[in-house]
Amino acid sequence: MRWDHLADANPTTAPDAALFGADAVTTRTFDTPEFRGVTFHEVRARSIVNRVPGASRMPFEWTVNPYRGCTHACVYCFARRTHGYLDLDTGLGFDSQIVVKVNAPELLRHHLASPRWQGEHIAMGTNVDCYQRGEGRYRLMPGIVAALRDHANPFSILTKGTLILRDLDLLVQASRVTEVGISVSVGFTDRELWRTVEPGTPAPERRLDVVRTLTDHGIGCGVLMAPVLPFLSDGPGRLRETVRAVAASGATSVTPLVLHLRPGAREWFMAWLERHHPHLVRRYERLYAEGAYAPKWYQRRITGQVHDLAQEYGIGPSRPGLPRRIPAPEHRAPDRDAPAQPTQLTLL
Prior knowledge:
Shape: globular
Distance between the termini: 35 Å
Structural class: alpha/beta
Helix content: 25-40%
Strand order of the largest sheet: 3-4-7-8-9-10-11
């Protein structure tokens, strides 16, 4: 495995100096059912806040990624190619060889305290899910969210993980002093499709329960309807079923995103398609003949349909959040009586 001169592999992040060396890696396995077949590589990272290059289409400039690789095992995950930078397999290796930046909370707290840091928005879950299964053991996110809360630093989280509810109290506290945006990814509600294409994730209805719980606690939560899978979850009935469920969860918004197939993810997804839906292989090859993205006309069609359904079911935008409100040093604990002012995570 190649560790030396490793830069953060977020596709939106420019190459950087080595984040850690081979002497900083501890490899562990755990003999429990939920981690059977999974290897964790614990590293002490040299940096944790990553800058997104200006040429990126992402609407945020800074990210934090405490993990690399993901046990969600989504067959379409665009981040699969990043495992190749470690000489790891982008298929099963991405699902089972997980890099854990065990010092992420302390690194972030140090970074936020720097006089050079201007309190810019930090996005999480942009590469792999920070609330994947291993987070239940490593518990990196409580320290990360607490650091952001204590510095009143705005942030957003995108997740498929129900484990985020473990940190509900911290998120509520943070929302009282800064802007907090949370989006849950639910591309479809078909259980049979979910079991094969996202085998390591909580069921779609459990994710929508997360949306409902966050909303009930005053944290507006949007749904990233991603990915919409051509010829599998894009039928009018399937789209309606998903948007109806999203609306029932109390989501502040729904944003559709059609499947894109970057190198690494494309090969793995197409192999899955050949096994499970061989009759669709040629149709996918034609639809994605020009590159990683579906044609614009197709994306516009899906977006229009979902937006029409959202309007029909009364899904509207969330309210804008309040500016940063840093408490006085002698009162660092948040005011529990202050009203929550959520803001939506925007990815498009």
